[in-house]
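Mods, move this if it's the wrong board.
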Amino acid sequence: MITTFFRSLRNIVPLFLLFFTLCRSVWAQTAVETAGATSVSAATAAHAKPIGIASPSATVDDKKSAHLAASVGPRPEVVNRQALEQRAGPDACKLLVRSQPSAARVWIDGAFVGSAPMLLVVPPGKYKVELRGARSQYAVQLVDLLPRETREVALTLVIRYPTRATVR
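Not the wrong board. Structure tokens:
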């Protein structure tokens, strides 16, 4: 029985040594890669510029911040819509904008004013009304408003670019 044990052990030992050798080579490879990465990182860090950290006491007058400033006021569409309403005056016109599908972004003369459906109070004149959908959908109409006129603009959005191509 003992001889059978040693014979089976004699077959297993070379496999064990092979496994152990492979594990050691993998470990050595990992150690070499880590050392290389660390030395490259260290060399890069030695030549890097120091990171400047803004202190809370620094004011805008001292130096210009490299960071984007968070907007403090109202959103741009609110500002654009208010600018139209302020210019409206006593002969103000009303422009009701609807879209199919709904919730299209509304642009008046290139300025974003909100999402459809919406009612705008604008001064009399000519306007380019653009609607832009979420999936490259688009619609445009030129509108000419007379003093104290109310107009509804209902546009159906169409896809600007083809969704399929046929090769013959």
